[in-house]
Write a structure and sequence with these properties.
Length: 408
C-alpha cells in the first residue's frame, strides 16, 4: 500500500474518514484557496492577474473500493453522497458533490480510467467569501483521483500512467500536466456546474509559491513570481455570501465577450482605453462599463507588478484601492458591505491597500497591512464594521503558501 501523500495527523478529513468508513484512508491531498490581489475579472478577457495561494485548504482523505461505487462524505454536510462510478449525474440536492462529479466527468472524457472509491472532505476555506473554495475542491479532487488511479494528462490527452517510486510517491506534475489539470477543472465548473469562470482560481491553487505573488498571463498562460515584502495580508469577510451560479458572473462575462466582439477583437486584452473611448458608440452602455473596467484593470496590473518588482509595496497598495473603485463604479460587482470595508481600511494609517477579491457581489476584501499594525488594524475594522453594519467581523491573517501541485 502506498504511503499517505501528506501529513494527515490533524486533518478533520482523516477523522471523518475513519469514523464513517471504519478504516484508515490510503491517500490524503489538499489544495489551497486563493486571493486575487489585483486583476478583477481579467482572466477570461486574456488579461493578467496577480494572485496568491493562501493557507486555507480543501482536504480529502480517500481510499479505493472494489464494488464500483463512489461514496463522498463531508464535514460540512450531514448526508453522504453515493453513486456508481459509471453514473456521473448532477444532483441539486447535493450541489457540493457536483464539483467532484464534474471533475470525474471531465477525466472520463479525457480517457482516464477509474472505478469506485471512498472520500472524506473537509473545507477550511470559507464558502462564498471570494477565496475560491470551489476551485480548491476541483483541484483536490483531480489530484486525489491521480493518487487513487494514477494518470498523466496533457492537452493532447492521456499518456501512459506515472509510476510510483520506492516510497509509493508519484512524480511531480510537469508544467504541461499542471496546465492540463487546471483547464480540466475549469471545464468541470463551466460545463457541469454551469459557472463560466476563467482559469484564475485553478491555476492559483495549483501554482502558488510561498511568500510570492503570482503574475498569471492568461493570453500566454505563463506564471511569473514576485515577492511581496513588508506587508501582511488580512481578509475581511463581509458576511454577505455570493453564489456565482446565480447568474451575475455569467452576465459579466457575456458583456465582456459582447464588447470584444463589437470592437472586432478576440478579447478585451487587445483594447486600450483610447481605442475604447473612441468606439464607445459601438457598445451598449453595460458593455462599455464592463469593458472600461477590464481595460483599465489590466493597465493597473502591469503597473502594480512593476511596483512589486521595485519593492514599492505602498505603491502597489494604491493600485488595489483604485481597482476596488473601478469594480464598484464600472463593473458594478461590489456590495455596500464591501464598500464599507474598503472605506474603513483606507482610513487606517497601517493599511497600504484594500479591495474586493474574487467574483464580487459579496464575499471578502483583501487588505495589505504593515506588519506592526496588524493587531491595531484588526481591532479598528472589527469595531467600526459592527457599528456601521451590525455585522460581526472576524478578520483573518493569511500566509502565502505553495500550491497543490507542489504538495503531492
Amino acid at each position: 500500500m502506498p504511503k499517505p501523500t501528506s501529513d494527515m495527523s490533524t486533518s478533520p478529513a482523516l477523522t471523518l474518514f475513519q469514523q464513517h468508513f471504519a478504516a484508515p484512508p490510503v491517500h490524503f491531498v489538499r489544495a489551497p484557496g486563493r486571493l486575487e490581489m489585483l486583476g478583477n475579472h481579467t482572466d477570461y478577457n486574456d488579461g493578467i492577474v496577480l494572485s496568491v495561494a493562501i493557507d486555507r485548504y480543501l482536504e480529502i482523505a480517500a481510499a479505493p473500493r472494489a464494488d464500483g461505487l463512489i461514496e463522498l462524505v463531508s464535514t460540512a454536510f450531514p448526508a453522504p453522497v453515493i453513486f456508481p462510478a459509471s453514473e456521473l449525474l448532477a444532483n441539486p440536492a447535493a450541489p457540493w458533490a457536483n464539483y467532484v462529479k464534474g471533475v470525474l466527468d471531465q477525466l472520463r472524457q479525457e480517457g482516464v480510467r477509474f472505478s469506485g472509491f471512498n472520500a472524506a472532505f473537509h473545507g477550511g476555506i470559507p464558502m462564498g467569501a471570494g477565496m475560491s473554495s470551489s476551485a480548491a475542491l476541483e483541484v483536490s479532487t483531480a489530484l486525489m483521483l491521480r493518487q487513487l488511479y494514477p494518470y498523466r494528462l496533457t492537452e493532447g490527452g492521456p499518456l501512459s500512467p506515472p509510476v510510483r517510486d520506492a516510497q509509493g510517491r508519484l512524480p511531480e506534475l510537469s508544467r504541461d500536466e499542471t496546465l492540463a489539470i487546471a483547464k480540466l477543472c475549469r471545464a468541470a465548473e463551466n460545463e457541469f456546474v454551469g459557472v463560466q469562470s476563467g482559469l484564475l482560481d485553478q491555476l492559483s491553487s495549483l501554482c502558488g509559491q510561498a511568500g510570492h505573488v503570482m503574475e498569471i498571463d492568461f493570453r500566454f498562460l505563463t506564471v511569473k513570481l514576485a515577492p511581496l515584502p513588508g506587508a501582511e495580508i488580512i481578509v475581511c469577510n463581509s458576511g454577505v455570501n455570493h453564489a456565482l451560479v446565480g447568474g451575475e458572473y455569467n452576465e459579466l462575462r457575456e458583456n465582456c465577450v459582447g464588447a470584444a466582439r463589437a470592437l472586432g477583437v478576440t478579447a478585451l486584452r487587445s483594447v486600450n482605453l483610447k481605442n475604447l473611448l473612441s468606439h464607445r458608440d459601438q457598445l451598449s452602455p453595460r458593455q462599455f462599463e464592463c469593458a472600461h473596467h477590464i481595460v483599465t484593470e489590466i493597465e493597473r496590473v502591469v503597473l502594480a507588478e512593476q511596483a512589486l518588482r521595485a519593492g514599492e509595496t505602498r505603491r502597489f497598495g494604491q493600485y488595489m484601492f483604485q481597482s476596488h473603485e473601478s469594480s464598484r463604479d464600472w463593473l458594478k460587482n461590489s456590495a455596500p458591505e464591501l464598500d464599507v470595508l474598503v472605506e474603513l481600511a483606507r482610513a487606517h494609517p497601517g493599511c497600504l491597500g484594500a479591495r474586493l477579491t474574487g467574483g464580487g457581489f459579496g464575499g471578502a476584501t483583501v487588505n495589505l497591512v504593515l506588519p506592526d499594525q496588524v493587531s491595531n488594524f484588526i481591532g479598528h475594522m472589527t469595531r467600526q464594521y459592527q457599528e456601521r453594519t451590525g455585522h460581526i467581523l472576524e478578520p483573518v491573517v493569511c500566509r502565502i503558501v505553495a500550491g497543490a501541485a507542489a504538495r503531492e
